[in-house]
Write a structure and sequence with these properties.
The chain is mainly alpha-helical. The protein has helices spanning 3-12, 14-36, 41-48, 52-59, 67-77; strands at 81-83, 94-96.
Length: 98
């Protein structure tokens, strides 16, 4: 863990920082899958019924998407959105899966 993350965790709390990290990993998964399908943000937006600005903000980590938004994106990308309900300490229980 970097010094910045440690200090930020002390200020905002570990749970808050962990939620940001999970959101960042999900955003990266969306962007990676979109690019692997050779889709532009506009094409993903059109396929999911979302504004292009929403897709861009999610991928940039500016917006925390709601579950229904993640479901629309996962359907448009052709990958399932899985929340398995496990209570482990890692975030492997929530991901976009191939």
């Amino acid at each position: 863990m970097s010094d910045f993350i440690k200090r930020y965790s002390e200020l905002r709390g570990n749970d808050y920082v962990k939620s940001l990290q999970v959101e960042g990993r999900i955003a990266a998964q969306i962007k990676t899958q979109r690019k692997s399908l050779n889709l532009s943000q506009q094409e993903l937006a059109d396929a999911s019924g979302l504004p292009k600005s929403t897709v861009g903000r999610i991928e940039a980590g500016i917006t925390s998407p709601k579950v229904d938004t993640l479901l629309k994106i996962s359907k448009a990308l052709g990958i399932p959105f899985i929340i398995d309900g496990s209570t482990g300490n890692d975030d492997s229980n929530m991901k976009l899966s191939r």
